[in-house]
Every structure is written in structure tokens, then in C-alpha cells.
Amino acid sequence: MLFSELGLGPDVLRAIEDKGYTQPTPIQEQAIPCVLQRRDVLGCAQTGTGKTASFTLPMIDILASGRARARMPRSLILEPTRELAAQVSESFETYGKHHKLSMALLIGGETFTEQVKKLDRGVDVLIATPGRLIDLFERGNIMLNDIKVFVIDEADRMLDMGFIPDIERIVSKLPKNRQTLFFSATMPPEIRRLADAFLTDPMEISVAPPASPAETVTQAMVLVHEMDKRKALRHLLQTEDVKNAFIFCNRKRDIAVLQKSLERHGFNVGALHGDMVQSKRTETLERFKQGEITLLVCSDVAARGIDVQGLSHVFNFDVPLTPDDYVHRIGRTGRAGKQGRAFMLATPDDTKLVGAITRLIKREIPMIAIDGLETAEFGEEDSSSRGRGRGRGGRAAKSEGRPPRGGREERAPREERAPREERAAREERPVREERPVREERSSRDDRPVREERQPRESLAAAEARRNNDPRRDRDRDRRRRRDDDDDDVPVIGFGDHMPAFMLRSARPRPSAETSTEQSQEG
Is the Cβ–Cβ distance between 103 and 86 less than 8 Å? Predict the structure, then answer.
């Protein structure tokens, strides 16, 4: 089937031809007609199969008619990471170049000013990460009651990053009469329940088993000890025909260490992880796409949706902690029908993680050996991880082969210990003589030094002595009177204790005239 048979408009078809594409992928072939029919879609397909174009192409045709109003976008696309959002915006620019659709990209790490200006002019397509969208909504810079098409891309990644509560809040602000498109590379039960809540009579499209790697990717695994991982990676980089490659690490601090190690050995390498500022992340990724950087040591921020044309290799320096992440990592290569190679460096401590991956993809990963390096075996103790103080079993391995603190098992029981003189003789050391009791008087108070300490008074006896002391009641009365004198609470009125003289009726005082008459009569 050709793109021209899917019902797309001539302007979109012309942009597709300019890009050099003629035949759609299976997910595009099934999803595009359903989106054009304005139906809700639940799409699940392998990473690298063209899910982005399956909703961007029909959305351009749907939004071609109509006009956006200020602060009221007509469509909304949610992405889990800034890199994915930027990549989707590039797709709209590529396929919508023959249209006059306005677009805004709302991601963190950039100032609000330019984003607010675009919203004030009105946008047809709004591409955002959940956090920045909620920030602008709370500021009153955007209204979501005019959304016609709503897209949730990489839904399983949204779940992993904890964005589901934010998405539920955003959906509650959207109009009920809308078209919802839901795309994910995997479909765990949580994502299925979320889709049932958001979609109305959706068209379910699944073109490949969930969480299955593409057949165009050749997989291999190297099992070495922890201390040999960097040497094994350098050997693979030197022996493989590496045009460009992603090197994935589980922790951000390991990214910087591995980057410096590869630079010391003469490799052209860069780094990418979530703690970098957005401008640096964008610059590094662009330099990698342009070929200025050959190797990119990165975290899982680069494992979802990032499309680098012709990526030849993927190296898992660390076994991913989640088996789904393995599928997404190796999916960066072997895209668009091209061949790719993926290698994973595992240690004996990674037995459970590797087992979870093989159960997910339902196949064993072929093992290869490297000349000059000892091949480890699953289940054995990795001696190179001893003493590191971290990792699986590191602390237990550190304590093995060492006697317990103090060597208590080798001590003899107390009653079996030899006298002090015999121990000293056995150890060939003289016994220290006991010091005589001092008889001189103390220079401080001229009292004789006590030869032995008096037995300490028990707590019960001391308490009884204090209770029988007559001074105890006297001191208690003194403290009570002092507390009463220090009472600063003002007295208001007499309360119930009214003095008797105030209860008597007062006689009226005679006036001056009355007193004069009484004196004259007298």
C-alpha cells in the first residue's frame, strides 16, 4: 500500500514525497485512516516503527481547516521528555511545511516569555510536557476548552516517570467532545486501565507483540567481571564497525565517569542525561545527529522515541533495571528497516535482571567472548565487586573470609583462663607490680585518702531517705509561696468571695441644708 491510498491530502502527500517516503509502516497503514475518520485510537507497536507519523500526518489534514484563537489551542500532544517533544515538533514542521499551521512547544528549561507570546497569538498544535503545561495553566496563560484532538504519546514512559496524576488532571480540563489518540510501545495493565478511562470506543491497533525487539537488530551479550567492563567496551568499540552509538548507563554519576574514561582513550564522546540544562541537552543531541560526536553516553532520557538516522550500534554498559527499558534502548538502532547491532555488558550480579529480559523478549541473548578477558558465569560471586560498599551482595562479600570483630570464637571461657602471672610468663613479659595504697594526706583538705570506696547507696534507699527528711516539706512550702508571689495574672473582681462590708446597704449622706436645720433645732 502507498501513502496516496490512505486518504491524506495532496499537500501532506507532497511533503511525504519530499522526505523520500512512499510506503507506510504497518502502524501507519492501520492508524492513519482511523484518525481521519475521527475515531479514538489505541495503538501499540514496536519502537522505531513510525508511531509519530501515524498521528502527525492525519492531524495536519484535520487541522488544515479552522483558525486558532488566543490562548485556546486546537490540539494537544503530551510527551514524557523534552527531547521527544522537540522531535514531534520537527515532524510537524517537516510534514506541515505546505500548510500554515501555527505550533507552540511548551517544555521545561526555557523561559515562559516566548512560550506565552506564542499562546497569546493562538496556536493550532500544542506540544508539551505535563509539568510545564500545568504551570502555564495555573498562571492563566492557557485554556484547554477548545481542544479537538488530544494525543498521549509514549504512555508507558509517562507511567514510569510518574506523570499519570498530572495527565488525569489535564484530561479533567479538556472538553468531553474530543478525539483521543493513545500510543505506547508496551501495554502493561496500568496503561490498559488508563486507556479504558480516557478513550471512547477506540480502534485498537497492535502490529507487533508488546515489548518485542525489532528483527532488524542483532543482539549479543558479553559476560565479564565488573572490573573488566570498560576494557570490554573499548574492545567492542575498536573491533566493531561503529559509525555512531548510544552507550546507556543506569546512573547519572556513572555517565560522567565513563565519558572521561573514553576520552582518555581517544574516543570522540559526549554525555546526555536529565540533570543537564536544556540548552546543553539540545546542543549535545544536535551535534550527535550532525556527526560531530560519535559516541553518546546517556541515561534512559535517550531511550524513548529519539530518532537518529543511521544509528549503527547501541551498547548497554549497564543492564537496565526494567526489562521494558532494554527493548526501548536497543530500539534506537535498526530503525526504518535498516540493520543495527546491540551489545549488553553483564556481570554475575546481573543474573536476575538478564533473566527478566529474556523472559520478556521470549528468547535467549547470544553470548560472545572477548579475547584477553576472563568470561564470567551467571550465579558465581563477582570478586571484583568486593569492598565497593554498594551493589548487590557487596557488603556481604566484604565480610566473608574475615573473622568476627574481636575474634570472640577463639577466646577461652572465663573460668578456663590462666592466672595473670602465668599469662605474663607465657608471653615473656614481666608482671606489673601492684601499687601500694597511698597513706599520705590530701593537700586539698588534709583528709586521709580512702583505701576503698564505700558501697553505693541503692536508689530505693536514697528515695526513702529523701522522703523522711523534714527539710523536704519546708522546701516545698517555700517554693509554693514563691510561685504564688510571682503570679502575674491580674485579679479581676472578687468572684464568689465578696467582702461583708460591701454587702451592707449604704445610708444616704445628709445634705448641707438638712445638717443646718438639725443644728438650729438642737
Answer: no
